[in-house]
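Can anyone check this?
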Amino acid sequence: MNIKPIHEVLIGVFLFSLAGILVGPIKSELSIAQIALIRSVLVVIFMRMIYFVQVRKNPFRDLPFSFSPWQIGGAICRALNNVFFFAAIIIAGTANGYLFCNSAPIYLAFYQFFYDKRRPNIIEVLTILINFFGLSLFWFRGLDSGLFGIAMGVCGGVTFAGLIFSHTKVSKDGPAKNGLAKNGEEYKVGTVLLGNMIAVPAILILVFLPRLFLDSSSYLGSFWLSDVVWVNQFPSAKAWLLMAVLSLVQSAIPELLWARSMNKVNKENILLASFAPTLVAVLAPTWTALLLGERFLDATTIVGALLVHLAVVVLFYYQKKSQIKK
Protein backbone atom coordinates (compact mmCIF):
# COMPACT_ATOMS: atom_id res chain seq x y z
CA MET A 1 0.00 0.00 0.00
CA ASN A 2 1.41 3.36 -1.03
CA ILE A 3 1.12 6.09 1.57
CA LYS A 4 1.91 9.71 0.77
CA PRO A 5 4.86 11.19 2.71
CA ILE A 6 2.63 13.73 4.48
CA HIS A 7 0.36 10.90 5.67
CA GLU A 8 3.41 8.92 6.85
CA VAL A 9 4.52 11.95 8.86
CA LEU A 10 1.07 12.49 10.40
CA ILE A 11 0.70 8.82 11.34
CA GLY A 12 4.20 8.91 12.79
CA VAL A 13 3.42 12.07 14.79
CA PHE A 14 0.31 10.43 16.27
CA LEU A 15 2.16 7.23 17.22
CA PHE A 16 5.12 9.15 18.67
CA SER A 17 2.70 11.21 20.78
CA LEU A 18 1.46 8.08 22.58
CA ALA A 19 4.67 8.05 24.66
CA GLY A 20 3.12 9.57 27.78
CA ILE A 21 0.20 7.15 27.82
CA LEU A 22 2.39 4.07 27.29
CA VAL A 23 5.25 5.12 29.59
CA GLY A 24 2.97 6.13 32.47
CA PRO A 25 2.15 2.59 33.72
CA ILE A 26 5.82 1.53 33.40
CA LYS A 27 7.38 4.34 35.46
CA SER A 28 6.50 2.61 38.73
CA GLU A 29 8.83 -0.31 37.87
CA LEU A 30 11.51 1.19 35.62
CA SER A 31 13.50 4.41 35.58
CA ILE A 32 13.58 6.72 32.56
CA ALA A 33 17.10 5.49 31.71
CA GLN A 34 16.01 1.84 31.84
CA ILE A 35 13.00 2.58 29.65
CA ALA A 36 15.28 4.30 27.12
CA LEU A 37 17.74 1.40 27.17
CA ILE A 38 15.19 -1.41 26.81
CA ARG A 39 13.29 0.55 24.19
CA SER A 40 16.40 1.01 22.03
CA VAL A 41 17.14 -2.73 22.15
CA LEU A 42 13.58 -3.71 21.26
CA VAL A 43 13.32 -1.01 18.56
CA VAL A 44 16.35 -2.47 16.78
CA ILE A 45 14.74 -5.93 16.86
CA PHE A 46 11.31 -4.72 15.70
CA MET A 47 12.71 -2.43 12.99
CA ARG A 48 14.69 -5.31 11.53
CA MET A 49 11.66 -7.60 11.61
CA ILE A 50 9.30 -5.09 10.00
CA TYR A 51 11.65 -3.63 7.42
CA PHE A 52 13.27 -6.83 6.28
CA VAL A 53 9.99 -8.74 6.05
CA GLN A 54 8.83 -5.90 3.83
CA VAL A 55 11.83 -5.97 1.50
CA ARG A 56 12.31 -9.77 1.85
CA LYS A 57 16.02 -9.62 2.59
CA ASN A 58 18.21 -11.41 5.12
CA PRO A 59 17.92 -9.36 8.37
CA PHE A 60 21.48 -10.21 9.43
CA ARG A 61 23.33 -9.96 6.13
CA ASP A 62 21.52 -7.39 3.98
CA LEU A 63 21.72 -4.20 5.99
CA PRO A 64 20.96 -0.72 4.52
CA PHE A 65 24.28 0.71 5.70
CA SER A 66 26.61 2.74 3.49
CA PHE A 67 28.80 3.76 6.45
CA SER A 68 29.38 7.07 4.73
CA PRO A 69 30.36 10.05 6.92
CA TRP A 70 26.81 11.42 6.65
CA GLN A 71 25.15 8.15 7.67
CA ILE A 72 27.53 7.59 10.58
CA GLY A 73 27.11 11.22 11.63
CA GLY A 74 23.32 10.95 11.41
CA ALA A 75 23.33 7.71 13.42
CA ILE A 76 25.50 9.28 16.13
CA CYS A 77 23.13 12.25 16.22
CA ARG A 78 20.17 9.85 16.63
CA ALA A 79 21.88 8.02 19.48
CA LEU A 80 22.96 11.22 21.25
CA ASN A 81 19.50 12.74 20.80
CA ASN A 82 18.07 9.74 22.64
CA VAL A 83 20.63 10.16 25.43
CA PHE A 84 20.26 13.94 25.76
CA PHE A 85 16.46 13.80 25.69
CA PHE A 86 16.23 11.33 28.55
CA ALA A 87 19.09 13.05 30.42
CA ALA A 88 17.19 16.35 30.24
CA ILE A 89 14.04 14.66 31.57
CA ILE A 90 15.94 12.93 34.40
CA ILE A 91 17.86 16.05 35.45
CA ALA A 92 15.39 18.87 34.84
CA GLY A 93 11.98 17.34 34.10
CA THR A 94 9.75 16.60 31.16
CA ALA A 95 9.26 20.25 30.17
CA ASN A 96 12.97 20.87 29.52
CA GLY A 97 13.25 17.66 27.52
CA TYR A 98 10.31 18.39 25.24
CA LEU A 99 10.94 22.13 24.81
CA PHE A 100 14.66 22.31 24.13
CA CYS A 101 15.02 18.97 22.34
CA ASN A 102 12.33 20.14 19.91
CA SER A 103 14.10 23.41 19.17
CA ALA A 104 15.67 21.62 16.18
CA PRO A 105 14.20 24.02 13.53
CA ILE A 106 16.40 26.80 14.90
CA TYR A 107 19.62 24.80 14.58
CA LEU A 108 18.56 23.28 11.26
CA ALA A 109 18.34 26.78 9.78
CA PHE A 110 21.96 27.35 10.85
CA TYR A 111 23.04 24.01 9.36
CA GLN A 112 21.50 24.97 6.04
CA PHE A 113 23.13 28.38 6.14
CA PHE A 114 26.63 27.06 6.79
CA TYR A 115 26.55 23.84 4.71
CA ASP A 116 24.12 24.60 1.87
CA LYS A 117 24.59 28.40 1.84
CA ARG A 118 20.79 28.74 2.02
CA ARG A 119 19.33 31.70 3.85
CA PRO A 120 15.89 31.23 5.45
CA ASN A 121 13.26 33.61 4.08
CA ILE A 122 11.07 35.84 6.24
CA ILE A 123 8.19 33.33 6.36
CA GLU A 124 10.50 30.57 7.58
CA VAL A 125 12.05 32.82 10.23
CA LEU A 126 8.64 33.93 11.50
CA THR A 127 7.24 30.39 11.64
CA ILE A 128 10.34 29.20 13.55
CA LEU A 129 9.89 31.99 16.10
CA ILE A 130 6.13 31.42 16.42
CA ASN A 131 6.65 27.68 16.78
CA PHE A 132 9.26 28.01 19.54
CA PHE A 133 7.26 30.71 21.33
CA GLY A 134 4.22 28.43 21.26
CA LEU A 135 6.25 25.55 22.70
CA SER A 136 7.61 27.85 25.40
CA LEU A 137 4.10 28.92 26.40
CA PHE A 138 2.89 25.33 26.43
CA TRP A 139 5.70 24.11 28.71
CA PHE A 140 6.34 27.34 30.66
CA ARG A 141 4.91 26.16 34.00
CA GLY A 142 7.09 23.06 34.17
CA LEU A 143 10.43 24.56 33.07
CA ASP A 144 13.51 24.16 35.24
CA SER A 145 16.01 27.05 35.09
CA GLY A 146 19.04 24.87 35.91
CA LEU A 147 21.75 25.42 33.31
CA PHE A 148 22.77 21.75 33.12
CA GLY A 149 19.23 20.60 32.38
CA ILE A 150 18.83 23.32 29.73
CA ALA A 151 22.19 22.36 28.21
CA MET A 152 21.10 18.72 27.91
CA GLY A 153 17.89 19.81 26.18
CA VAL A 154 19.70 22.16 23.78
CA CYS A 155 22.18 19.40 22.89
CA GLY A 156 19.16 17.21 22.16
CA GLY A 157 17.82 19.83 19.76
CA VAL A 158 21.19 20.24 18.03
CA THR A 159 21.61 16.49 17.53
CA PHE A 160 18.04 16.05 16.28
CA ALA A 161 18.63 18.80 13.72
CA GLY A 162 21.81 16.96 12.71
CA LEU A 163 19.86 13.74 12.16
CA ILE A 164 17.29 15.47 9.93
CA PHE A 165 20.00 17.31 7.99
CA SER A 166 21.88 14.04 7.39
CA HIS A 167 18.78 12.62 5.68
CA THR A 168 19.26 15.06 2.80
CA LYS A 169 22.78 13.74 2.28
CA VAL A 170 22.67 9.95 2.76
CA SER A 171 20.36 9.45 -0.24
CA LYS A 172 23.31 10.56 -2.38
CA ASP A 173 25.50 7.70 -1.17
CA GLY A 174 24.61 5.62 -4.22
CA PRO A 175 23.31 2.06 -4.60
CA ALA A 176 24.34 -0.58 -2.09
CA LYS A 177 26.46 -3.49 -3.31
CA ASN A 178 23.84 -5.98 -2.14
CA GLY A 179 21.15 -4.24 -4.16
CA LEU A 180 19.10 -3.42 -1.08
CA ALA A 181 19.41 0.33 -1.45
CA LYS A 182 18.97 0.82 -5.16
CA ASN A 183 18.95 4.61 -5.06
CA GLY A 184 20.24 5.34 -1.58
CA GLU A 185 16.82 6.06 -0.09
CA GLU A 186 16.91 3.03 2.21
CA TYR A 187 20.01 4.45 3.84
CA LYS A 188 17.72 6.77 5.80
CA VAL A 189 16.21 3.69 7.46
CA GLY A 190 19.74 2.42 8.02
CA THR A 191 20.69 5.70 9.71
CA VAL A 192 17.86 5.40 12.25
CA LEU A 193 18.53 1.69 12.79
CA LEU A 194 22.25 2.27 13.34
CA GLY A 195 21.45 5.18 15.67
CA ASN A 196 19.34 2.96 17.92
CA MET A 197 22.11 0.37 17.96
CA ILE A 198 24.64 2.99 19.08
CA ALA A 199 22.22 4.34 21.70
CA VAL A 200 22.37 1.11 23.75
CA PRO A 201 26.05 1.36 24.81
CA ALA A 202 25.73 5.16 25.01
CA ILE A 203 22.97 4.91 27.63
CA LEU A 204 24.87 2.25 29.58
CA ILE A 205 27.94 4.51 29.68
CA LEU A 206 25.83 7.50 30.75
CA VAL A 207 24.24 5.57 33.61
CA PHE A 208 27.11 3.47 34.94
CA LEU A 209 30.32 5.45 34.24
CA PRO A 210 29.45 8.30 36.67
CA ARG A 211 28.74 5.67 39.35
CA LEU A 212 32.43 4.76 39.39
CA PHE A 213 33.41 8.28 40.48
CA LEU A 214 30.43 9.67 42.40
CA ASP A 215 30.10 9.56 46.16
CA SER A 216 26.65 8.84 47.56
CA SER A 217 27.18 11.57 50.18
CA SER A 218 27.30 14.31 47.51
CA TYR A 219 24.16 15.84 46.00
CA LEU A 220 24.89 14.63 42.47
CA GLY A 221 25.99 11.22 43.75
CA SER A 222 22.87 10.71 45.85
CA PHE A 223 20.77 11.58 42.81
CA TRP A 224 22.68 9.50 40.24
CA LEU A 225 22.82 6.45 42.51
CA SER A 226 19.12 6.62 43.34
CA ASP A 227 16.14 4.78 41.84
CA VAL A 228 15.37 7.88 39.75
CA VAL A 229 18.23 6.91 37.41
CA TRP A 230 18.30 3.12 37.84
CA VAL A 231 15.86 0.80 39.64
CA ASN A 232 17.58 -2.30 41.06
CA GLN A 233 14.78 -4.77 40.50
CA PHE A 234 13.74 -7.03 37.67
CA PRO A 235 10.60 -5.74 35.92
CA SER A 236 7.41 -7.77 35.95
CA ALA A 237 5.92 -9.58 32.95
CA LYS A 238 3.38 -6.75 32.62
CA ALA A 239 6.19 -4.19 32.39
CA TRP A 240 7.95 -6.22 29.70
CA LEU A 241 4.71 -6.48 27.72
CA LEU A 242 4.13 -2.73 27.97
CA MET A 243 7.75 -2.09 26.94
CA ALA A 244 7.23 -4.28 23.88
CA VAL A 245 4.08 -2.33 22.94
CA LEU A 246 5.87 0.98 23.56
CA SER A 247 8.88 -0.05 21.46
CA LEU A 248 6.77 -1.32 18.56
CA VAL A 249 3.87 1.13 18.43
CA GLN A 250 5.51 4.32 19.71
CA SER A 251 9.03 3.87 18.32
CA ALA A 252 9.75 1.21 15.67
CA ILE A 253 6.73 1.80 13.41
CA PRO A 254 6.78 5.63 13.50
CA GLU A 255 10.57 5.72 13.06
CA LEU A 256 10.26 3.60 9.93
CA LEU A 257 7.44 5.82 8.66
CA TRP A 258 9.54 8.89 9.46
CA ALA A 259 12.55 7.51 7.60
CA ARG A 260 10.40 6.59 4.57
CA SER A 261 8.84 10.05 4.48
CA MET A 262 12.33 11.58 4.39
CA ASN A 263 12.70 10.23 0.84
CA LYS A 264 10.95 13.36 -0.44
CA VAL A 265 12.91 15.77 1.75
CA ASN A 266 15.32 18.21 0.15
CA LYS A 267 16.99 21.44 1.20
CA GLU A 268 13.85 23.39 0.26
CA ASN A 269 11.38 21.54 2.52
CA ILE A 270 13.65 20.06 5.19
CA LEU A 271 12.69 22.81 7.64
CA LEU A 272 9.06 21.67 7.55
CA ALA A 273 10.19 18.13 8.40
CA SER A 274 11.82 19.44 11.58
CA PHE A 275 8.50 21.00 12.66
CA ALA A 276 6.73 17.63 12.89
CA PRO A 277 8.26 16.62 16.27
CA THR A 278 7.06 19.90 17.79
CA LEU A 279 3.53 18.59 17.25
CA VAL A 280 4.50 15.52 19.28
CA ALA A 281 5.69 17.79 22.11
CA VAL A 282 2.18 19.27 22.27
CA LEU A 283 0.09 16.17 21.58
CA ALA A 284 1.86 13.79 24.00
CA PRO A 285 0.94 15.69 27.20
CA THR A 286 -2.48 16.51 25.74
CA TRP A 287 -3.35 12.80 25.52
CA THR A 288 -2.13 12.22 29.10
CA ALA A 289 -4.16 15.20 30.29
CA LEU A 290 -7.34 14.00 28.60
CA LEU A 291 -6.98 10.28 29.32
CA LEU A 292 -4.89 10.09 32.51
CA GLY A 293 -5.47 13.51 34.07
CA GLU A 294 -1.73 14.09 34.60
CA ARG A 295 -1.55 17.64 33.29
CA PHE A 296 -4.04 20.48 33.50
CA LEU A 297 -4.66 22.32 30.23
CA ASP A 298 -5.06 26.03 31.06
CA ALA A 299 -5.33 29.06 28.80
CA THR A 300 -1.54 29.42 28.42
CA THR A 301 -0.98 25.86 27.28
CA ILE A 302 -3.93 26.00 24.88
CA VAL A 303 -2.63 29.22 23.27
CA GLY A 304 0.83 27.69 23.04
CA ALA A 305 -0.54 24.55 21.36
CA LEU A 306 -2.49 26.64 18.85
CA LEU A 307 0.60 28.69 17.97
CA VAL A 308 2.65 25.53 17.39
CA HIS A 309 0.01 24.13 15.04
CA LEU A 310 -0.42 27.51 13.34
CA ALA A 311 3.30 27.71 12.53
CA VAL A 312 3.29 24.20 11.04
CA VAL A 313 0.19 24.86 8.91
CA VAL A 314 1.47 28.24 7.64
CA LEU A 315 4.86 26.83 6.65
CA PHE A 316 3.26 23.77 5.03
CA TYR A 317 0.96 25.82 2.78
CA TYR A 318 3.68 28.37 2.04
CA GLN A 319 6.07 25.67 0.81
CA LYS A 320 3.30 23.91 -1.08
CA LYS A 321 2.43 27.17 -2.85
CA SER A 322 6.12 27.79 -3.63
CA GLN A 323 6.44 24.33 -5.23
CA ILE A 324 3.37 24.93 -7.41
CA LYS A 325 4.88 28.17 -8.70
CA LYS A 326 8.06 26.33 -9.67
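Reply from J.R.: I decoded it. Residues 5-325 form one domain.
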